[in-house]
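I am still getting used to backbone structure tokens and would like to learn alongside you. To get us started, please write out a protein record for me. Start from the sequence, derive the backbone structure tokens from it, and show both lines together. Once you have written the record down, we can walk along the chain together:
***
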Amino acid sequence: MDPAVFITTFGIIFLAELGDKTQLTAMALATKYPWKKIFIGLACAFALLNLGAVLVGKVLFSVLPIFWIKMVSGGLFLFFGVTTLRTKGYDDEEEEAEERRFSVRGPVATSFLMILLAELGDKTQLVTASLAAQHDSPLAVFAGSTLALWSVSLVGIFLGRQLTRFIPLSYIHKGAGCLFLLFGAVILYQALAGS
């Protein structure tokens, strides 16, 4: 396992998910259910999603030239950077409606389904696939992404509301957006310089 790929993946995914709907969902669920059951459900959902993302990334790596993988990855990072910077936040009413839809199941199943559906095709899943396609270290990408998502969910469960008292959510989103833009520019530069 490549430690540099692990650390890079962990950092990107962790910052991207701070204050995201997934973290807010985990926080809301933890107010209604025991945190351990919520964590079991979301941990399984994230592991499944990241396994799928890494497999898709590795398939892309085997069929596409690295130049095109980097061009698409760089474009995705730039796109997610711009959309993250433009995000205004999440509506509490939307979250509550989604929770009500799943609340007939137990807390583990509810958190699993909510996270699975919220993250399927989300920016972090696409970024995980992109990182897996770029690096020849799928285990490092899987571990970095999964641990980042688990960590940010635990932050949401235990410290979420307290954290946003000290660091405004808009700053967290701006930091993640700038990080996406920076990585997008670096990846595109690498692709163009290597060709």
In short: The mean pLDDT is 77. Residues 15 and 175 are 8 Å apart (CA to CA). Residues 3-194 form one domain. The chain is about 85% helix and 0% strand.
